[in-house]
Amino acid sequence: MRDTLRIRMGWLHEWVGFIGGLILVVVFTGGSLALFDTELTHWMQPELSRYQPSPLSDDALNRIGRLAQDLRSQGQNAFITLPTPRDPMLRVQYFNGHAFIGTVYNPADGFPILTRETGGGQLFFDLHHSLYYGPFWGNMLTEIAAIGLLVAVVSGIIIHFRSILTDLLLFRPFASKTRAWMDAHILAGLLFLPFMAMMAYTGAVIHAPRLFPMFGMGHHGRPGHERPAHPQGGRAPGNGQNAPALAPLAPMLHKAEAVLGADTVGLILFERGTVSMTKADSASFALSRDHVTFSEKDGSQIAVVQIPDNLHRIGGVLRGLHFIRWASLPMRWLYFISGLVGSIMMSGGLILFLMKHRPKKARSFLFRLAETLTIAVTTGLPLACLSYLWANRLFWSDLPARGALEIRTFFIVWALALIHAALRSFSAKPRRGWNEQCAVFAAFALTLFPLDLLTRSANGFLNGFDVYKSVDLTVFCFGLAALFIHRRLVAL
Amino acid sequence: MRKSLKKKHDRKLIRAWTLRLILGTAFVYIAGIGMLSLFRRMGGEPFLNVGFLCAFALMPALLLVIFSIPPRRKRNIVPSLALLAPCLGWLF
Fold first, then answer.
1. Tens-digit pLDDT profile for residues B33-78
2. How distant, in Å, are the alpha carbons of A120, A352, A390 from that of A417?
3. Which chain A residue has its CA at the smallest distance from B20's CA?
4. How many angstroms separate the Cα of A491 from the Cα of each of A431, A435, A486, A487, A488?
5. Predicted complex ipTM
6. Rounded to whole angstroms, how far apart are CA atoms A209 and A407?
7. Which of A32, A56, A139, A177 is 20 to 30 A from residue A23's alpha carbon, by CA?
8. A39: part of which helix (H) or strand (E)?
9. Would you say the C-alpha torsion A438, A335, A195, A26 has a positive or negative sign?
10. Interacting residues of A480 by C-beta distance below 8 A, sequence separation 6+
11. Where is the segment annotated Disordered (chain A) (predicted)?
């Protein structure tokens, strides 16, 4: 081995890519699914399929305001999310440490809709930004992985710099296995390079204080600095009778809309005797969280808080670019496909790493461990995601703590996939590990549509292409792809 | 070169690169802290956003520069960095 720039960069790309890739495949897969977190939550609450979207009424809002106030007096940090085109329901939610969960209300009359308890699509959001490992250590890991991705991208460009144009045009799926994987890896990497670099960079900057806690203004999730359960100073939790009467929310909403713009308010937050009518994340490109605060007692306007200057707007622009909550459906799909291609490209990189080292190190413990981990993230993770959807429909809807049980199912299936991968990797036929997991994924993905039909009201089934059919069809397509890969692996 | 000698040489190279990666990562983190301190001193807390933007562009670039420096016996730094510069430019 000679010590040249390309060989050095190749080594850096290989190792940073492999170690970072194991985390980044999870981050990209979770992030792609989190783009449709609201829609997935909707799919996971099939009771909502019976309800038609209706406009928000003042009476309903005032009623929900009183309910939220009661919850706050019982010690919950409850807040209200207003109906949007993506989620046309009124929700009273609180943060449980991993996700925002709560009760759904009809925006027309403010009466509760009995839905099953679920973490919904927010599991993927948590998995994306902190690997479900807490806001401090989990975030720090994903931050380091994002920098690793930037390093791997530039070192990859340096390796292929001489033939970058030919690599853009060449894809030889029927050449040797290594060549075909390499072509796919390079082609996907080059075509989606701007997207991946942008996502890694904006994601790293958004959570930068996690990596540099000494420069953070807040506690940023450091262990031992968690928020108290009830931030309203001095008020005794659990004593609902002491809560002061809340002024009606509807007049406050109308006043806030006069300031921030019609249909732009998305959140109603309560803190220290004030009510904040906060701009929805989808209202503008830059995520600003502009809000108008009112007195809780008499509803009088206290202040209008807006981003003071462009320097403060930078963070909002980066969040807008990364979260794309402002985007229309086609744009969201474009991000979803780009994220999936990124995930596939990184999975391809992991497979190439194994292909390179297999001839010399196939029997070594570390190689088998690397193969186990690769199988667990490339095929085990999609299997776990699918099991989460299945668990949502198979657990009966009034099961206590069923949201936590669904999440537990996700991690149990992922752990089983890891054990299965280890058993196969440490045996004589490691390829069977990939093959069997692909077959199981295909079987469960192709039958999700019948499961959906059996476990949800058929009312309005022929009404059009709704969120339920979209999820079913997308998973069906993934199932077909897994079946194709399974057939190819059997033929090899 | 005999096979055993080649293996020895390869291992030595990999050890050197690993050391360079670990030390480079530590150096890059310290450089990031230095840059953020500079921004805080120059413009206060609001300027930190710009500092984070610069630090996250600097850190991977600096690590690659550290990895581009050739070994002591053939120190022709210019051609190495000449290839790195357009790649970084293309990305950022």
1. 999 999 988 888 778 888 999 999 999 999 999 988 887 665 566 6
2. 22, 21, 16
3. A12
4. 12, 11, 9, 6, 5
5. 0.83
6. 28
7. A177
8. helix A37-43
9. negative
10. A442, A446
11. 222-241
> Is some CB atom of chain B closer than 8 A to the CB atom of A15?
yes
Residues forming beta bridges with residue A103, ordered by sequence position: A92
**pLDDT tens figures, A72-98:** 888 888 999 999 988 899 999 988 888
A111: contact with B, CB 8 A cutoff: no
Domain residues for A382? 362-492
Q: Closest by alpha carbon to A13, among B12, B77, B60, B53?
A: B60
Domain boundaries of chain B, sorted by first residue? 3-91
Select from A2, A6, A7, A157 the residue whose CB has the most chain B CBs within 10 Å, as the one to mutate to test that interface. Answer: A157
* A346 lies in some domain: no
Q: Are the beta carbons of A292 and A249 closer than 8 angstroms? A: no
Look-up of token digits 């990895």: B67
Q: Are A196 and A157 spatial neighbours (Cβ–Cβ below 8 Å)? A: no
Which of A1, A151, A204 faces B13 most closely, judged by CB atoms?
A1
Q: What is the distance between the alpha carbons of residues A344 and A188, in angstroms, rounded to a whole number? A: 8
Length of chain A: 492
Domain count of the fold of chain A: 1
What span, in angstroms and rounded, lies between the C-alpha atoms of A324 and A163? 34
Instruction: Name the token pair of A220.
Output: 């940023």
Render B50-84 in DSSP notation, one character per residue: HHHHHHHHHHHHHHHHHHHSPPGGG--HHHHHHHH
CB hemisphere CA count around B54 (13 angstroms):
15
| pLDDT band at residue A164 using 50, 70 and 90 as cut-offs | confident
**CA torsion A166→A170→A175→A181, rounded to 10°?**
100
Task: Determine how many CB atoms are found less than 10 A away from the CB of residue A46.
Answer: 18
Q: How much is the average pLDDT of A419-448?
A: 93
Q: Which two tokens stand for residue A150?
A: 């930037």
- Does a structural domain hold residue A386? yes
Contact list in A for residue B78 (CB cut-off 8 A) is none
